[in-house]
Amino acid sequence: MWRLLLIIGTGGFLGSVSRFLLSRLIQNMALSAFPYGTFIVNMMGSLFIGFLYGLSVKENLLTPEWRLFLTVGFCGSFTTFSTFINENVALLRDGDFFHFAFYTGLSIFIGIMAVFLGNYLTKMI
Question: What pTM did the predictor assign?
Answer without folding.
Answer: 0.75
